[in-house]
Design brief:
This protein is mainly β. The protein contains five helices and 43 strands. A hairpin with a 2-residue loop joins strand 6 and strand 7. The longest helix has 11 residues.
Length: 774
Amino acid sequence: MRGSCLRWTFRSGYRFVVALGVTTCHGAIACAQTAAAQPGEIVVTAEKRDATVQKTPISITALRGSDLVQAGITNITEIAQQVPGVSLKTGGPGQTELEMRGLNSAGGNSPTVGFYLDETPLTSFAYATAGKVVIDPDLYDLNRVEVLRGPQGTLYGSGSMGGTIRLLTNQPQLDGFHMSGELTGSVTQGGGVNGGGNAMVNLPIVTDTIALRVVGTDKYTSGWIDRIVLDPFPLPTDGGLTRGDVLSAPVAKKTDDVNHTHLEAVRASLLIKPTDRLSITPMAMGQRINSGGQWLVDVPPAKEAHYQPFDTPEPVKDRFWLASLSVKYDFDDFQIVSATSHWHRSLVQVQDGSEVMQDVLGLPSYYVDEGGLGYDPWTERDTATETSEELRIASTGTSRFQWLAGGFYGDLRSTTLQYSDDAAAGDLFGVTTLYHEYVPQAFKQLAGFGEASYQITQTLKATAGLRYFHFHNKFATSEYGFFGPNGDDTPGGSASTEKDSGVNPKFNLAWLPSRDFTLYGIVSKGFRPGGGNQIIPTSGTEEGDACAASLASFGKTDNPTTYKPDSVWNYEIGEKARFLNGALTVNASAYYENWRNIQRAVTLTCGYIYSDNAGSAHVYGAELEVSAKLGKELTFTANGAYTHAVYAQDSAEAGVSKGDRLPDVPRFTSSQSIVWEHPLSDRYAIVGRLQNNYISSREDLTYYVARLPRYDIASGRLGLTSKAGWQAFFYVDNLTDKHALISAINSQVLNIPTMTRDTTNQPRTFGIDLTYAM
């Protein structure tokens, strides 16, 4: 990357650095440019109007799409690992929950981070595995990614109480024909051959009036986790608390690389601009992910494998499509924007339940009959469909008073179906259905929001905003089978409604004494909707009796059918500064959050989980990003975040004490990169890049509180770039071949003490990346 990302020329009276603020271009990510910005500056729309990153007085990191390609960043997981203040919980592609600033989503049905594709909110509130995970699209042909830290409850609403991530696509261009493409090929150590590509074409249809842009993706990852069938499979020891020695048991069958994944996607957008004032942009997108299995390994023994008594595949199928329409009209003094969208997602995943059945029921073997038949796997089918509309009006121009007002409507319908039907189990259980659960849900929300700012002096600006929200969540469950509430084929069910309304305020005071320095303070509030729980059996079976005893230990006879919303107040100060004619950028922030009425997952000793509100937590921390130009050919970037997130009171139900750490939250994260760009001629240059991402230890919730060790993952790229539009890179991901445990995942069946399933990363991978654009 030539030059510096942002330029600094402090006035003589401001030759100092304030080490309290937010972000700019991240890593070696360069910045976008518009006519209104200084050369090299990135322009964002985080506050629903155009502004440069350095003059946007909130905690934001912006990454330009073309530089994501050059850095080899292709998915949302890689972004989360490189942006300060962001953490994740993942089971593989399409299975990622995003979290920011310690506000984890371990409990409840709703995420704590808003997720947007252009103007479309993709934050789901469904009672399902898919309720909190993002669609994980390939990041090719994006204009930029915006990561907004801290509650965004005013402009982005529910589900954004920890922050918001926005993927902004490149829009159709009216000025002519454009195309680009990318081909990748790689080999994973201990895995196989990976490959695929992306393509984009931009076609002007009517000169200066209509243009079409189409993007396609097809990528295959070979996988590296093996499925190993043991015969005989060792029984647990230590009274059922310790898993048998699977490493010493005889191997009956081994299937290599079962987590192979194939992603296919297409996106098409049309720009219709009949006048300079009016633009109409319909967009359609479809994506499907097929995986032979999740990226999960057994712990113990923490090897790159899953051990089973039977040869039971665990495929994952994820389907998503979206249709949206954005209409913008510019009047003389204000702009009107309408954003309409309709999307549908279906996710099917299968999980082997043999060990769970043996452990929970205390059986003498893993077989259900003399013929050696195993249990049918547990299947979960989740579907969600949402229609949304946002209409807003915002002032334009350069007057001292600026304003924005709008309304939002969302209608989400979802269903969750979990089942395991096994004809061979009839003799043992007296019923062939082990478990069948059907959960329909209807979630509607309405909101009205407004924000206004006033330039008090040339250097001081105040902004205030609020959002009124109302949601209505209708939830029902129907369950039967051996693990159902009645222990047989007699259905048991419940229906409940959770609704609430309120106001999320925000106040921001920003001081901008020069174009190169911003100091700001924020007070803001965010919230997350409440929801409902499944029915947990409390009688009729050995397992129901165990659940009843577990509930009784903290004074309950049944689990709650619903739980309430939680909310957070955020207090933050920050700065953004540039020095040495743009050669050095230092952005930082410090914050304190009071999280109330936390939605927390409660794990019973019988293996069942439900959500309830469990007191409050205090979170404080700081984030720092630095970008430095070290001479003409070297650029160094580094960021780091410290997060102190602990419970503020005891909760016997949640099994936590005051001072315990919140789950899924690393205390320290950091990322460093150095980019070397050496010109060979006027047309060609050699570019090298080294990157390292560090995540400290985390605590995760399964049957026990699992401690996940810290890890570093490094990568390197070396290639040739041309001003003719092509570039070729050789790369190595996971340079040190680190075997990291990223997340501990709750069982799709029931949690047991003998084993967890942990997500692991891809081993060392060597590859070639070829791109061309015109």
